[in-house]
Amino acid sequence: MPLAPMGCNVQVHEKTDTRGTWAFHSVDGWYLSTSPEHYRTHKCHIKDTRSDRLSDTVHFQHKSITNPTMSPGDKLMTAIADCIQTIKGVSNHPQQQQLHDLRRLMETTPALIRPHAVPRVESPSTQSMPMQSVPRVATQQSTIQQFNTTVVNGASSANEFGRLANGVGNRIKKPSNTIRFIRYQDLPPDRRKDVTYGKFVCSVRPEKLEPNRTRLTVGGDRINYPGEVATPTAEMLVAKILFNSVVSTPGAQFMTIDISNFYLETPLKRPEYIRLKLTDIPDEIILEYNLRHLADANGCVYVEITKGMYGLPQAGLLANQLLEQRLNKNGYHQSKLITTDWTGKRYIGITLDWDYGNRQVHLSMPGYVAKALKQFQHTKPPTAQHSPFQCTPINYGAKKQYATEQATSPPLDKHGKRFIQQVCGKFLFLGRAVDSTLLCPISAIASQSASPTTDTMRQTKQLLDYLATQDDAIITYNASAMKLAVHSDASYLSEPKARSRAGGHFFLSNGANIPQNNGAILNIAHIIKHVMSSATEAELAGLYIMAREAVYIRIIL
What we know:
Largest sheet: 5 strands, antiparallel
């Protein structure tokens, strides 16, 4: 732990549970010492309160003691060494590759981030809801065709309205009566400011009875729900432990149960309201429900929601509470609304290939990468890319290791920033589910997403090239004694701002001193928040992070 001089000026971080909404995030103080009873905790004297305080987040304001970096003399010696290599005829291939990547980035970036028109079925236009410049669904004709011709001619969206309302054309046998079309004058005066928007989302769900799906979703970001909305659910780690338990238990098999439309038909404690343009509603629905007489002068019609819908922040919790109440009652019976999959081939979007004979299960997500690359309009590179992120060149014989310098490349505009955030969000689930090689590059790119530069875009393009080159990732779980084993590692000063990175591999194995490797139930690739003073300290910090996660997994086991 770095030991600063006693009396050094510091900024002590104020935790979110102790500071006000608009208060400063830190207070002035003087550094006293480190706390031997706590991990990476400093003891400081606060100027305002004239009292001592323990804090794990402190910014030192010393005049001469700073984070390790390259001095002007070090930069000059590095330039002379590169000049000597050039004179001797030794070409610097990494720099040539960087120039090639930069040239390619300048050619492809304008076409990539050029604004596109948003498809009508994806984001309906309203006066208060601006159109998004980056499409959430690819607009190519091939993407539209995969949703079948019913989406093109509007029948699928008409069926969606029929299911939510009171039927359409005698095609819906049991409509849910979830929504009701109303006039603007019928809105409660105290709820008119809570009116949100609606949008259509098309998807392919092969595990459902209706694989080609068009769903009307609610803009939950504009709903002011006064109650609790968090839903208690099991995370992916618990599911992976369950998969290991199935293959490790002799004779056990896996199955899944899906309750049809239970999430959608849960009654709400209070109604919600959305506004839709008539141009986004199929003509069949407009005629059946006489919506032209309900529309206002702007061509908008209002919808009252009384049951759960996709996008409502409170719908998940209400459905969970209702399910718990019904399961607690006696007299269980088989319901036609419950779909049972005795093969257990798919769960939370992951395809499960069970090999009960060899007591193995293979986890994969086929087609996920191809669909995502089509969404981002990224083609396969002419040269195979086998590295998801740019590696730091090895400097053999160096006696000192310096922190990574800050990037000085030009910043991206808001379209490039949004593109990078979408890529990170899209592939983070894939990395946590089956492909752990994506966690480190996504973590590094996401740490720059607040203020991305052209270097960040180049790193994102390399990640997409890697995904387009490699085959679909597969995780295999073998039968084991269900004993938790953890591998820990750390890299020193490998991230900007003199930060280090900790990595961990968690798996279930036997109780041997050197446990046999197995598929990972959890992978960690964290940037250590504090500045490490040595590689040894970075390794110890990595061990602490892994041990903290292992305690939680032990409780689950």
